[in-house]
Amino acid sequence: FLGIQQQAERGDDSLRCVLIAGDGGAFCAGGDISEYPDFRFDPAALRDFHENDVWGGLAAMLACDVPIVARIDGACMGAGVEIASCCDIRIAGSSARFGAPIAKLGFPMAPREAQLVAGAVGDVTARQMLLEAATFTAPEMLARGFLSRVVPDDLAAAEAQGTVQRIAALAPRAARMNKQTFRALKMPPAPDGQALSAIESIVNGTPDPYAYANSAEHREGITAFIEKRAPAF
């Protein structure tokens, strides 16, 4: 996305719209939990993963002035919800399901990611996803304002492609300016130019939001999933 944004900043009007879709019948089922023991139990490694790897990718999407359309099929879980939250138009097949049931794995959503998701799905839905490990159907997420449209599964690809074509036929610079405006409207005011935003205070404050890395419940949640048993928190 950095390359796309750089082209847009150079005034390249050939980039009109980006389409994001999953492969293999799912938009994104979340992270590969089998890899978690390699880094999640170390606070420094965990912070680096979320603040640089994950947020680096999401921030690049959010900073992109070219419209982004998401075609959501099947599972849209965890990181999938975060990726979809960065998109401008979200089109889902009727059987798609949404959630972030990481409470079952014994860990919270990272602060910046939680702010992003809550802003996109709404506070009520975000709390249900994270506190109850609730999952939702596509019609439910449409009713909650997260999705732009829900269509039969076999029509999702055509609907998404048609949306991309409609956007691409419109004024590209106007679209980029609209995205810049939407992004500015979400920025918190800082009258003195020095005050840390609430999210920065959490990310860099005390207690360290990644200090749970080596906690017993974090280890138990991930180990139980890998061992295919219910966690004992």
Describe, in short, the structure shown.
This protein is an alpha/beta fold and 233 residues long. The chain has helices at residues 2-9, 43-62, 79-85, 111-121, 123-131, 138-143, 156-168, 172-185, 198-203, 216-226, and strands at residues 18-21, 68-72, 75-77, 89-93, 97-99, 135-137, 149-151. It has one domain (2-186, 204-226): 2-enoyl-CoA Hydratase, Chain A, domain 1 (Alpha-Beta Complex), CATH 3.90.226.
Can you characterise this structure?
This protein is of the alpha/beta class and 233 residues long. It is built from 10 helices and 7 strands. The chain has helices at 2-9, 43-62, 79-85, 111-121, 123-131, 138-143, 156-168, 172-185, 198-203, 216-226, and strands spanning 18-21, 68-72, 75-77, 89-93, 97-99, 135-137, 149-151. Helix 4 (111-121) packs across helix 5 (123-131).
